[in-house]
């Protein structure tokens, strides 16, 4: 069975312009952007420029290079808040290692006695699933694991959110489903004295309109899934920041220091989450990635349109291959599936031999995929802005061939 | 089996790159079944197999499926062959250490053994054993040979003293000098490497530094009509022993003179006498030449006749047997020339620089 009825000439097979990813070889098809997106040239240039032109420490020096760094870091914080439609008065932005680290940083420093329960959902990444387990031990309160609907909404009752620390993702790394009821969830939670911490690891690259409307207390995401360098970001309400009980401390965060005591500057509360020197090149690279995301027009389309087009193509192509079971009910830039004929790990290795890079297994969502759903290992393709139609065509064709050849 | 096969391959490739060293480590864990399956990951065995199959699944699907089905069998064969060759390498190394040749059964087949003539043990090769349906006998012989090899290890550490093996009739190239140490050679007059060693010794002036003597030995070979590797060696040796009983007033004893003519002399054909004796001449012709040489050396007809008789006498044959026992049971060399001096022993031609 050929999933493409139209006959293509050799010329048509030639990859279209990858523009800012021109360094990617035409023979390589990278389909693991949900793990780490490729960095476009402008991001690389921005980092290179920092290294070459003003490679200084930020936040502590008086010379010109350092001031340039401070400006760039400030600009990065503003860009992030702008992208999420949040006000710098209400929210602070802190830089960490990655989403996992950001979530742990917040959860580990939450004060006791305020919250009655910890709530999470079954489709969470281990970065959420495990730290929430640890919190049970630390705060001595129960943990509730709720279901998520196929459309991504959290299935909860008023009791579930009462005085709760809710930690859920806004976009799933399994099938891209989003937390559709995030807005009401936030307001219900707040009404009953809880907080909503959002795992936004997969969210910032896509349509952020949902997040803009959500009154979250904190959101963590990773630069490396957002076309930026390896970096974590915590966007957090200043009110929550104040509540946090310090446990990681060090350089760059004190105002006054005595032999046995110190104080944090009131005007810069985010420094509570930023002990030690920051990854300035990373921050500058991320800032440039966000600017780039606003401007980039692959094949004349907006970022969202381009992604939707490739997602639709992938979804349609995979749906028509016999013996494949898709977890997605609708197209998404992240699609997971399994085949009746070939184990997903094998398929991933076979694809990799054809220079097609995909993920196999349970993508660190074992609880849901393995324990609850009892799926066999899955194969995941996650699209990025470097991908072209020819990438998708090649992927579909090769997958189809492998599946029929292995029988 | 697959993990073991992969371990062997990656271990070898690991010499060249870190990537393979890491894979070898993984394969090793897989062999020991210590591999922990991280939930985000898959087993090494499957991964390595699939990488192989994946190379062909799109372009050569039939071959890929074949590989997929039979890979364990291939791996098993590969491991058996690898272990076999490893054992062979170990055995050859041990042989090289003990006998100075990797193959004591067929010395000439081992280029590492240096220049020498092998003393065949008469054992058949594995292939020959298979053809003759005597694999069991072959295996038994192998085990015995191996045990023998092990028993010889101490020989390598021992100090070799010529005096332990020389008898009263031994002659020296130059008159015996008590101020010099003794060197002993075991030589077969037919072995060209013994000739070569002789020439090296002469050009190094070795005979001026040591009292050089020898034990003549005709390498046996049950597969030839004469029963010897070089057909006329036995006859020549008989004459070497016989002339010792009829010394002449000369600087160089006449047995040494015979050896010198044999090793260095050139016949009327333009080739060396040694070669001619080995390839051209019958026993009678060789004897005639020896007689001619004896006359040239200064023996009269009567003495020559006595020498001829003595050479064929039981006494000389017994003497030769005694020598053979020394060579085979005491010195236990498997290839000659063997030369011992200064406590050391070499079973091959050695260069002038070592002889100086
Ligand atoms: C939904 C989700 N949350 C959290 C994470 C963890 O991100 P990081 O590894 O950058 O900490 C991931 C990573 O894939 C993810 O997809």
Describe the structure.
With 407 residues, chain A is of the alpha/beta class. Chain A has 2 domains: 10-30 and 298-406, Aspartate Aminotransferase, domain 1 (Alpha-Beta Complex), CATH 3.90.1150; 44-294, Aspartate Aminotransferase, domain 2. Chain A is built from 14 helices and 15 strands. Chain A has helices spanning 10-13, 41-53, 64-84, 99-108, 126-139, 158-161, 182-191, 209-213, 238-243, 280-295, 303-319, 344-353, 366-372, 389-406, and strands at 29-30, 91-96, 117-121, 143-146, 164-169, 195-199, 218-222, 232-237, 256-257, 262-263, 324-326, 334-339, 356-357, 359-361, 378-382. Chain A has a 7-stranded mixed β-sheet with strand order 2-8-7-6-5-3-4, sandwiched between helices. Chain A is globular, with a radius of gyration of 22 Å. The model of chain A is unreliable at 1-16 (pLDDT under 50). Chain B contains 15 helices and 6 strands. A 4-stranded mixed β-sheet of chain B has the order 3-2-5-6. In chain B, helix 1 packs antiparallel against helix 2 (18-31), helix 7 crosses helix 10 (254-264) and helix 9 runs antiparallel to helix 10 (254-264). The longest helix of chain B is centred in the N-terminal third of the chain and has 39 residues, at 61-99. Chain A binds chain B through residues 343, 345-346, 349-354, 360-364, 366, 370, 377, 398, 401-402, 405-406, and chain B through 39-42, 46-47, 50-51, 53-55, 57-58, 61, 64-65, 68. The structure holds pyridoxal-5'-phosphate. Pyridoxal-5'-phosphate (PLP) is lined by residues 34-35, 98-100, 125, 127, 169, 173, 199, 201-202, 222 of chain A. Residues 34-35, 98-100, 125, 127, 169, 173, 199, 201-202, 222 of chain A line the site of pyridoxal-5'-phosphate (PLP).
What's the CATH topology name of the largest domain in chain B?
Glutaredoxin
- Per DSSP, what share of the residues of chain A sits in E-state strands of 2 or more residues? 15-25%
Spans where pLDDT lies below 50 across 5 or more residues of chain A: 1-16
If classified by CATH, what would the architecture of the largest domain in chain A be? 3-Layer(aba) Sandwich
- What is the assigned CATH homologous superfamily of the largest domain in chain A? Type I PLP-dependent aspartate aminotransferase-like (Major domain)
């Amino acid at each position: 069975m050929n999933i493409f009825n139209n006959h293509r000439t050799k010329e048509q097979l030639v990859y279209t312009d990858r523009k800012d990813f021109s360094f990617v070889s035409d023979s390589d098809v990278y389909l693991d952007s949900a793990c780490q997106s490729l960095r476009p040239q402008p991001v690389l240039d921005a980092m290179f420029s920092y290294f070459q032109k003003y490679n200084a420490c930020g936040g502590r020096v008086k010379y010109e290079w350092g001031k340039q760094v401070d400006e760039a870091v400030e600009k990065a914080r503003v860009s992030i808040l702008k992208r999420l439609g949040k006000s710098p008065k209400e929210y602070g932005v802190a830089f960490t290692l990655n989403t996992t680290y950001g979530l742990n940083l917040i959860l580990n420093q939450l004060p006791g006695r305020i919250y009655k329960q910890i709530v999470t959902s079954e489709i969470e990444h281990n970065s959420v699933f495990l730290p929430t387990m640890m919190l049970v031990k630390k705060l001595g309160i129960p943990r509730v694991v709720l279901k998520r609907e196929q459309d991504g909404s959290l299935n909860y009752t008023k009791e579930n959110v009462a005085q709760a620390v809710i930690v859920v993702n806004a976009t799933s790394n399994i099938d891209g489903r989003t937390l559709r009821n995030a807005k009401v969830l936030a307001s219900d939670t707040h009404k009953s004295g809880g907080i909503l911490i959002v795992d936004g690891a997969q969210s910032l690259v896509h349509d952020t309109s949902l997040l803009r409307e959500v009154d979250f207390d904190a959101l963590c995401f990773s630069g490396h899934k957002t076309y930026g360098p390896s970096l974590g970001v915590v966007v957090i309400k200043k009110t929550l920041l104040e509540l946090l009980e310090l446990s990681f401390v060090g350089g760059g965060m004190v105002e006054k220091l005595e032999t046995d005591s110190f104080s944090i500057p009131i005007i810069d509360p985010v420094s509570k989450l930023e002990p030690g020197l920051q990854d300035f090149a990373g921050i500058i690279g991320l800032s440039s990635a966000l600017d780039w995301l606003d401007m980039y027009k692959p094949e004349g389309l907006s970022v969202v349109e381009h992604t939707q087009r490739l997602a639709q193509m992938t979804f349609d192509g995979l749906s028509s291959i016999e013996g494949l079971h898709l977890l997605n009910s609708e197209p998404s830039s992240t699609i997971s599936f399994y085949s009746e004929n070939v184990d997903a790990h094998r398929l991933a290795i076979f694809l990799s031999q054809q220079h097609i890079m995909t993920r196999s297994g349970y993508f660190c969502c074992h609880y849901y995929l393995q324990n609850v759903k009892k799926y066999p290992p899955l194969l995941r393709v996650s699209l990025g802005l470097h991908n072209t139609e020819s990438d998708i065509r090649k992927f579909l064709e090769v997958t189809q061939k492998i599946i029929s050849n292995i029988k | 089996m697959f993990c073991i096969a992969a371990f062997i391959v990656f271990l070898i490739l690991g010499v060249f790159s870190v990537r393979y060293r890491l894979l070898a480590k993984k394969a090793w864990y897989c062999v020991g079944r210590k591999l922990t399956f991280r939930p985000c990951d898959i087993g090494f065995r499957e991964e390595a197999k699939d990488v192989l199959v994946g190379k062909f699944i799109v372009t050569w699907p039939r071959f890929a499926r074949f590989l997929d089905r039979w890979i364990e069998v291939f791996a098993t064969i590969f491991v058996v062959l690898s272990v076999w060759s490893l054992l062979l390498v170990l055995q050859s190394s041990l042989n090289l250490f003990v006998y100075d040749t990797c193959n004591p059964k067929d010395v000439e087949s081992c280029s590492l053994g240096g220049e020498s003539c092998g003393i065949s043990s008469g054992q058949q090769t594995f292939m020959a054993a298979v053809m003759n349906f005597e694999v069991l006998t072959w295996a038994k012989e192998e085990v015995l040979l191996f045990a023998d090899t092990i028993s010889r290890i101490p020989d390598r550490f021992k100090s070799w003293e010529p005096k332990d093996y020389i008898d009263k009739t031994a002659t020296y190239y130059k008159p015996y000098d008590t101020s010099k140490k003794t060197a002993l050679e075991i030589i077969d007059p037919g072995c060209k490497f013994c000739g070569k060693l002789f020439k090296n010794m002469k050009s190094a002036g070795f005979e001026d530094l040591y009292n050089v003597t020898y034990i003549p030995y005709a390498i046996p070979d049950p597969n030839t009509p004469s029963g010897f590797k070089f057909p006329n060696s036995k006859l020549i040796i008989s004459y070497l022993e016989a002339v010792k009983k009829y010394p002449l007033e000369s600087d160089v004893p006449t047995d040494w003179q015979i050896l010198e003519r044999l090793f260095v002399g050139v016949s009327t054909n333009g080739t060396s006498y040694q070669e001619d004796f080995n390839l051209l001449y019958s026993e009678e012709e060789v004897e005639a030449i020896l007689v001619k040489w004896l006359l040239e050396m200064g023996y009269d007809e009567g003495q020559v006749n006595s020498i001829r008789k003595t050479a064929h006498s039981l006494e000389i044959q017994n003497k030769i047997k005694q020598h053979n026992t020394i060579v085979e049971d005491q010195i236990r060399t498997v290839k000659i020339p063997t030369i011992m001096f200064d406590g050391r022993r070499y079973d091959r031609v050695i260069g002038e620089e070592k002889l100086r």
